[in-house]
Every structure is written in C-alpha cells, then in structure tokens.
C-alpha cells in the first residue's frame, strides 16, 4: 500500500515532477495525446465542432472548445472529489483520486481563467455508487478520462496555438493511462488514438449531469 502523503498541486508547470514523486513505478506507464470539444446553450448542448485538416482556429472557436473543456474538467474534478468524500477508496485507488482531484481542480482554474466572465457556473453532477464502490469508481474513471482525452484529441486541430491547451492534455493522458492500469488494462493499448466526437462525449457525460 502506498503510504506517501500527497502534496497540493501548486501549478501546472510542477505537475509532472509532483506526480513522478508520488506514484509507484508501475503507475508511471503513461500515454500522450492532444485537445477538446464544444457546447452552446445547456451544459452539454450545442453544435459539434468538426475537426478537419483545413482547420485554422479562431478566437470564437477557441472559446467554444475551451467551454466544453471546462465542462469536462468540472465533471472530472467533481467525480474525484465525490469519491474521496465517499471514503471507500484505499491504497493506490485512493492515491490516484487524491492526485488527479488536485490536478483536475487546477485544470478547472486554467480553463476558467482563460474564458474569464464567459466561464459561467458549473452544473450539478451526480455519480451514484460510482463514487462509493471502488470497482465502479475505477471503471468510471477510465470512461471519463478516455472520453475527455478522445475529445481533446479530436479538437486539437481546431485550436489556435496561443491557447496552449497541450499543457493540460499531456497530464490528462497520464490520468487515463493510470486509470487503465488500475483497472488491469494495458495503459497504452494503441499507437494512434481514435478521436471521440463531441456528440459521443455528450452521451457519455449526460448521465452524470443533473442541470
């Protein structure tokens, strides 16, 4: 059982060193990826932002993608916070939740700061026994991390370079790989990831969103 104390994450720049210092060698098999999806209207409403080879990005598109990215990060942060509050996690699963909860909270701030006043307020979430049953927690963590990462991968081409979203995405890739390892799965099962569309992500996220 891992007994090290998990420090608070002070900045995005320090995340890699902090995680390396906290996790076991088996947990350090991590993947890589790229960035986001979109909403307009309700929390998971809005039109698909289609990734294409001809995409050039624009401030308006950046805002749409960052808005959906903020929803993803708020959902993930709330999930890990709920699981820790449930008090049923032990060992590496608890360590994973502690580390990732802090980093998702940092990502929420990152996206909210980038969006400014247009960030809005977070919706309410519900996780049921996924937050209290360790096996369901791990399975749900894999689903949320892989879905978010797939959306990021599909939307990277639509962002302007100045958004610097890759600073977040590389960390999300490590989250997904760690979650897969906890589930007994290959942390890096493919050489090239298949993007997840925004519509597909909405279907995955909708059960967890109350309003």
Note the run of SSEs as H and E.
HHHHHH
Q: Structural class of the secondary elements?
A: mainly alpha
Overall outline: globular
Number of domains: 1
Alpha carbon gap, first and last residue: 38 Å
Structure overview:
By secondary structure, the protein is mostly helical. It has one domain (31-40, 55-208): Ferritin (Up-down Bundle), CATH 1.20.1260. Helices cover 51% and strands 0% of the residues. It contains six helices and no strands. It has helices spanning 15-22, 59-86, 91-115, 134-155, 166-182, 198-205. Helix 3 (91-115) runs antiparallel to helix 5 (166-182) and helix 4 runs antiparallel to helix 5. The longest helix has 28 residues, at 59-86. The radius of gyration is 16 Å and the shape is globular. Residues 1-54 have low confidence and may be disordered.
Provide keyphrases for this structure.
single chain; globular; 51% helix; Ferritin; disordered N terminus
Write the layout of secondary structure elements.
Blueprint: H1 15-22, H2 59-86, H3 91-115, H4 134-155, H5 166-182, H6 198-205
Helix pairs in contact: 2-3, 2-4, 3-5, 4-5, 4-6
Would you summarize the structure shown here?
This protein has 211 residues and is mostly helical.
């Amino acid at each position: 059982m891992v007994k090290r104390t998990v420090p608070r994450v002070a900045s995005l720049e320090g995340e890699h060193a902090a995680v390396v210092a906290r996790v076991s060698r088996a947990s350090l098999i991590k993947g890589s990826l790229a960035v986001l999806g979109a909403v307009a209207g309700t929390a998971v409403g809005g039109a698909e932002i289609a990734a294409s080879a001809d995409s050039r990005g624009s401030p308006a598109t950046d805002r749409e993608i960052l808005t959906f990215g903020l929803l993803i990060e708020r959902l993930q942060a709330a999930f890990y916070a709920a699981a820790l509050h449930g008090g049923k996690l032990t060992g590496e699963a608890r360590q994973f939740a502690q580390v990732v909860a802090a980093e998702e909270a940092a990502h929420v701030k990152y996206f909210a700061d980038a969006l400014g006043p247009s960030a809005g307020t977070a919706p309410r979430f519900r996780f049921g026994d996924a937050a209290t049953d360790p096996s369901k927690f791990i399975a749900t963590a894999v689903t949320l991390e892989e879905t978010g990462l797939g959306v990021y991968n599909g939307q990277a081409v639509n962002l302007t370079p100045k958004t610097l979203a890759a600073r977040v995405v590389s960390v999300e890739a490590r989250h997904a790989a760690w979650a897969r390892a906890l589930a007994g799965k290959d942390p890096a099962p493919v050489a090239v990831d298949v993007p997840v569309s925004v519509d597909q992500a909405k279907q995955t996220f909708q059960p967890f969103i109350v309003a």
